[in-house]
Amino acid sequence: MNKSDLIERMASDADISKAAAERALESFTTAVQTTLKKGGTVALVGFGSWSVTKRAARVGRNPKTGEALKIKARKAPKFTPGKAFKDALN
Questions:
Q1: Distance from first CA to last CA of the chain, Å, rounded?
Q2: Domain residues of the chain, as ranges?
Q3: DSSP single-letter state for residue 39
Q4: 4-26 as b/e, with b when 16 or more CB fall inside 10 Å?
Q5: What is the pLDDT of residues 27-65, one digit of tens each?
Q6: Each residue's pLDDT tens digit, 61-85
Q7: 41-90 belongs to which CATH class?
Q8: How far, in Å, CA of 21 to CA of 40, rounded?
């Protein structure tokens, strides 16, 4: 499922226009990104939570040449599924 498929599904399930569904999805993703950027977490009980993890600097290898590369430290988003979400898949 891609973004347009998700928008269509949201619009039909919520009985709203595709434009309204797209605005709702954009609002949700922006809110999650803004919260994570500020160092917070977003938790939807039963679905899951988003947080930020720190990745340390490390040395990697170029797979073609085998040359060592320095990989900078960075922050990465992390999603942890909730129990109800995991249970729904099994």
A1: 20
A2: 1-40, 41-90
A3: T
A4: eeebeebbeeeeeeeeebbeeee
A5: 999 999 999 999 999 999 999 999 999 999 999 999 999
A6: 999 999 999 999 999 999 999 999 9
A7: few secondary structures
A8: 25
